[in-house]
Amino acid sequence: MSPETMALAQRIWDYHHVNHSLQPADCIMVLGSHDLRVAERGAELWLQGYAPWLLFAGGLGRLTLGLWQETEAEKFAKVARQMGVPEEKILVESRSTNTGENVALSYQLLQQRQIKVDRFILVQKPYMERRTLATFEKQWPGPKTEILVTSPQINFTDYPNQDVSMEEVISIMLGDLQRIKIYPEKGFQTYQPIPADVREAFEQLVAQGYTGHLMPE
């Protein structure tokens, strides 16, 4: 992969990060995916005392359906238990299949448990921070809640592993950026400004063929 392509992809990666400074919260909510490092980040934050509750949300999504036998939330919760988080502090929402459902069904679970949340720490993959923020701002059905977003503390060049290649990471990042652009009009997310240099990087990478996760427009 050329240095030029890597530089363009780095620009997209940086845009997807919202760079929030974390503060103590009422609940850490970890959104499901194929990346167990997200579960580890959530458990680390709980163990550091950032919140009394650790909620895992996610059934089987497009990247895990057919790959895993148990839901994303259940698999993530197992990671947290192995890291020392007590069972009674873990909440599991295992029916949702997308980020919007993560939000709605987690709200229902918290209501059932009578857990009031004024501030959330949301944990997601690094290249999904901004879309998670935008979705949560739009979809959260309860009273206004402060949202802080974080992800595994990994840089772009180190992120690919045996589960996801660099090429796949770039394609997924472009798909998420496209959704940030078009989903506000559909009522799925809040509007997020996209700087001109990020739009330019997107167009150049699409022209190079990183289109595997784009939606038809």
Automatic annotation (TrEMBL):
<dbReference type="InterPro" id="IPR051599">
    <property type="entry name" value="Cell_Envelope_Assoc"/>
</dbReference>
<dbReference type="InterPro" id="IPR014729">
    <property type="entry name" value="Rossmann-like_a/b/a_fold"/>
</dbReference>
<dbReference type="Pfam" id="PF02698">
    <property type="entry name" value="DUF218"/>
</dbReference>
<dbReference type="InterPro" id="IPR003848">
    <property type="entry name" value="DUF218"/>
</dbReference>
<dbReference type="GO" id="GO:0005886">
    <property type="term" value="C:plasma membrane"/>
</dbReference>
<protein>
    <recommendedName>
        <fullName>DUF218 domain-containing protein</fullName>
    </recommendedName>
</protein>
<feature type="domain" description="DUF218">
    <location>
        <begin position="26"/>
        <end position="144"/>
    </location>
</feature>
